[in-house]
Every structure is written in C-alpha cells, then in structure tokens.
Design goal:
With 432 residues, the chain is mainly alpha-helical. 66% of the residues lie in helices and 5% in strands.
Amino acid sequence: MNKRPERMARTHELVKAGLARRRAAEVRFRVYGLISIVGGLCFLFTLFGSIVGHAGAAFQQTFVALDVRFDTEILAPDGKWDQEARMAADYGALLKQSLAAAFPGVRERQQKRALSALLSNGAAFELRQMLEARPDLLGKSETVWVPAASDADSYAKGQIDRSVDESERRLSDQQLAWLDKLAAEGRLQKRFNTTFFTAGDSREPELAGIRGAITGSMLTLLVTLLLSLPIGMATAVYLEEFAPRNRWTDIIEVNINNLAAVPSIVFGLLGLAVFINVFGLTRSSPLVGGFVLTLMTLPVIIIAGRSALKAVPPSIREAALGIGASHMQTVFHHVLPLAVPGILTGAIIGMARALGESAPLLMIGMVAFIVDIPSGISEPATVLPVQIYLWADSPERGFVERTSAAILVLLVFLIVMNGTAVYLRKRFERRW
C-alpha cells in the first residue's frame, strides 16, 4: 500500500520534468523562428537598400551648357534649308565649334577628341530636335543644355575618385580639369533624367530609357489578358459546374494542376516551336509574347476560378433551382457574379506573374536590341524584365544605375498589381 504514493510521486516528477522540456523546446522554436524572420528581413532590407542606392543616381542626368551658334555655313552651305538639308546637316560640327569657343587653349587633335568625349553622342540629336522645333534659330546663337557623356556624368555624381592613378580611371586629369572649369562657370548641372522615362533602349547609358520596354510590357499583358481571362473563366466554369465526373475530367484536372508547376522556360520553348516555327508569327513581338504568357497564366486563372466557384455556398444554387431557375441561369445569374471577385483576384495575380517573367520571352527572341517604341502588337519589342537582363549584362557604370532603376519601376508595377488584387478581395469578398 505504501508503494502507490511513491509511484504517483515519481510519475508526477517525470511529468513535471517533461513539461519543462517541452516548454523549453517551445521557447527555442520561437527563438529560432524570430531569428529566421529577423535574418530574412535584414537580407531583404539590404537588397532593397542596394537597389535604391544605385537607382537614385539613374533618376538624375548631368547636362552641359554650351553657347551654340546655328551657323548657316555649316548647316546649309548651299543656302537651302528643307527637310533633306535638316537630315543631312552636321550638327556635331556645331558642338565642336562651341567647345572650341569655350576652351580656346585646346588645339591638338587628341585633346579635341578628349574634350568632345565629355559630351553624349546624343547631343547632336538634341540640337537637331531644337532646330526643328524652332527654325528661327538658324543663323542665331543660343545657350543649349546638352547631355554629358556617361563618364562625365559619373564624375559629376561623385562616382569617380580623382585620387586614383590616371591610368586606372576612365577620365584623364585634363578631362577632370575641363569638367571642373565647367562646374565653376555654372555650366555643369544635374537635372531630373526625363530621358529615362521617355526614350527607348540605347547603347549609350545616358540616352537609354525604359519607355520602349514599358510599352512592350503593356502590349504583351494586354494580349495576355484578352486571351487568358475569358478562356480561363470559361474553363473554370465548365469544369466546376457542367463537366461530368469521370476519368477524362480527372485527367484534365490533374494536368491543369501540373501545368501550374511547370517551369516558365518550357512555355517559351513551346511558343518557339509552335507559334514561330509552325505558324510563322513575328519573333520578338508582343503578339507572340502574349500567346506564350497566356499558356503560362491559364492554369493559375483556372485554379483560382474553380476555388472561387467552390467558395459559393451550395444553398445559393439550391435556392435558385428551387424557384425554378435552370442550371445555366443558376450558374450565370447567381453563382458566377458571386465568384467574380475571386476570379479577378486570380487573374491579377497571374498577370503580375506574367509581368515579371523573362525566361519564356527570351526563347521567342524578345531579347533583341530594340531602340524604337513599339506602336502595335506585331512590331518588334522588348519587355521590362528582359530590358533589366540586357542592362545587367553591360559593364558600364551608367547601365548599373539604370538596371537598379528599372528594377525599382518593375517592383512598383508588381506592388500596384498585387495591391489591387488584395483590395478587390477585401472590397468584394463575402463571408458566408
């Protein structure tokens, strides 16, 4: 009889020790989770800090003020100033003339080349545009702000250390002295880089912009949306409301779920083989890109649509059928309107995924160097992720900045699209 209390006491001690161990394990698990979260946030903030730090410089561009005389002897030596003369005029000679007036001590050919290298190759194009907008400037003088070259821009932004040996930097001591002279005279200024948002791609960093890539992305997403949304909704409605439950339906459902996990580059290979090699569609066009992204986003939209339809309570269907509605009327007049917010949320998430994809578009040739802004879905174009990929592969410092700035713009678009999806879900979601 005396052994039972002892046994109970030992059991109590064992249980108490086990509780202490479990509580200690729970505390350790919470600490590990907290360390993981903090570590992940640190890496995330470091990544975003690096992107924002590099991107800030891309939103500014250095300009040089020159007193340009639009000399008729250079621009129109034969006295004619028609469209052909404007196209063939030597605007670069005007820049050389202005630089010679600003730096009269520069006489040697090598020094003149080094001085001209401080100006962007697009400076002559700026003069041409200015003269086309104001023909009355012909024969007159005007102070013109032209873009500086990428290396001069880097120096103005403090990215070139002049204490480094001359042989190890891209600007010579003489060029730095010329830039210092321009800055002292107030002829060197940093301004907001509107070119980054209004121009297409260029081999010169100071002339490169994302307008062409954004236009290509919007056209590609437009084709994707017009194809994937109606096809995805129709497929989801059929499979969930009308399809018979048999082996073939099960095979279709399994394949749709599997397609949602297929690597995106596989869809690019499919688009290359079918749309380009078989149907002969134009490479590097938003039309083909939209077809490929449609194939990629359809499984996401179908799965989200079926989930939204399943979320509608059976009582809605039963009530509609009870008052005499047909099965078709029940689905399209009662069930589908209640499921539309969920379907739209899935569609927006699918579009956001399509916006950030580059691998399938690389396979269909959208990696091409495109300077012009596309005006239609059949013209050659590129998209924002591919543009980022191209710039990231360039060694120039100016393209590093523009890569980060383009990533920032892409992230803004993705945040807006995902935020819209969250808003639609919160705004129209019904709790049953």
